[in-house]
Amino acid sequence: MAKKNNAPRNDKAAAAKSQAQKSVQRQERRTLMGVLIGVGVAIVVFGGIVFFIVQQSNVPTLDSGDAVAPAGADASGGIVVGTSGVVGEDVPEDAPRVDVYLDFMCPVCGSFEEINGEDLAELREAGEIELWYHPVSILDRFSSGTQYSTRSANAAATVADAAPEAFVDFVDALFANQPEEGGSGLSDEQLEEIAIGAGVPEDVASTLDDGQFTKWVIAGTDQASQDGMAGTPTVMVDGAILSQTEDVAYFQAGALRAYLEAL
User: Fold this and answer.
1) pTM for this structure?
2) What is the DSSP code (8-state) at residue 6?
């Protein structure tokens, strides 16, 4: 009897085995790539966590030696202006303490100042309130990389420290010349010109870009968030944040003044 030819069957078996091996290899490669991608994602996430922790650890506190405070500032990051309009002088006793948290890039802060600035100044001059300014920097990301919120807050702190009699006028001038949110902000040269126009001596105005109080601004902004500031403007009276819906609608002309006069 003639033997059967098993070659075709063997060829098919070999081909099937080869295909199976290739399939296993492809699966192994996909598994390996999945592991590598997973490890890569883990590294990125871990890196992000580490970066966040490092960034947070780099934020100074107001009581640290790194955060040099301007004259007239206290442990909360506020700058007090007395009845004479000079930082740190003629501060009334036993008057309600009013803290105003402002970002010079914030258009809503500009509106707040337009509505309430004159009323607050008159109440301060009459000794009816103790007025504290908190220049904070929460809108740097909206100044096209120029860090305008921080630069302008540092400029205000510099004026408070070296030209305290011109601080109020400089703050008013910053809002009068407020740049558009999302733009590049005012340049250092423009800040210097505005300061001189507000009565700041030229030798002081020329130092506004030195960044002497930048760390104080950063520390004060962090402290403000710990104290309850969720955005700007924020108004605090004797340590309690005023709610626009429950306490006083301070974007209505005269409402904040009436509230403070009734205290």
Assistant:
1) 0.78
2) -
